[in-house]
Write a structure and sequence with these properties.
3 helices; 0% strand
């Protein structure tokens, strides 16, 4: 039979692991944004000097969309251990805002690539064609 002290120690270890995991996921998100911003700056400089630079805005949108996914994952991990109602409310608000932003970023990216927005398919499973 487990005593209360060993359960408390296990709970503390899981909570510490979740905190480190959340920090790691947030660090990955920041690194993604940093690399994306550096690439965007290089592309802007190339464009300013007359060389082809690709679509800087769409590249940056892809990076931000990926970073938002990592940030949402970090928030979920952070709220998973002993959440209170205030934390759950904050997570819901942040998740809604990030999901809203990501939805419109994905739509814009799909429109730019000529593909249907994510998740839209015909009854047969084929992607929806644009009119």
């Amino acid at each position: 039979m487990h005593d209360a002290a060993s359960l408390e120690g296990l709970e503390a270890a899981v909570s510490t692991a979740a905190s480190w995991l959340k920090l790691g996921i947030e660090a990955v998100s920041v690194a993604i944004i940093l690399v994306g911003m550096l690439v965007a700056i290089v592309r802007l400089c190339a464009h300013a000097s007359g060389r082809p630079a690709g679509d800087v805005r769409m590249g940056l949108a892809r990076v931000l969309s990926l970073a938002l996914e990592f940030q949402l994952a970090a928030d979920i991990v952070g709220t998973a251990i002993s959440p209170n109602w205030e934390q759950i409310g904050k997570l819901a608000a942040v998740a809604a805002i990030r999901t809203f932003l990501n939805y419109f970023l994905q739509r814009e990216l799909a429109a730019k690539d000529g593909a249907p927005p994510h998740g839209q398919v015909t009854a047969e499973g084929a992607p929806v064609s644009k009119p």
